[in-house]
Amino acid sequence: MSFLAGLAHLGFHQADRVYKTEFRPYQELTIKSTFGVVQINHRLRIEERFFHSTEDNARKDDRFNFRFR
Fold first, then answer.
1. I want to staple 31 with a disulfide (CB 3.0 to 4.6 A). Which of 8, 11, 39, 42 is the partner?
2. Are 32 and 41 contacting, i.e. CB atoms less than 8 angstroms apart?
3. What is the pLDDT of residues 15-38, one digit of tens each?
4. Are strands 63-67 and 17-35 parallel, antiparallel or unpaired?
């Protein structure tokens, strides 16, 4: 069994300025099972997305999106 966690930080650019930033934390669990000569890997990955607008006239609340694969 192994556990992995990470974070991506992105900036969306337009006309040489950042107008929106995004944080993408994720967690992943991998379990390996062996049946004779056959090895099976089970992977569960959870990803979150947080957006923040840097423009003054934009909404100030954060949006939270779930994505399941």
1. 42
2. yes
3. 777 778 888 999 999 999 999 999
4. unpaired
Separation of alpha carbons 5 and 3, rounded Å:
7
Spell out the residues 6+ positions from residue 46 whose beta carbon is closer than 8 angstroms to its own.
26, 27, 28
Q: CB neighbours (10 Å) of residue 30?
A: 13
Domains of the chain, by residue range, sit at 2-63
Please name which of 10, 16, 18, 23 lies closest in space to residue 55, comparing C-alpha atoms: 18
Contact yes or no for 18/58 (Cβ under 8 A): no
Is the per-residue pLDDT at 63 higher than 80? no
CB 12, CB 19: distance < 8 Å: yes
DSSP 54: -
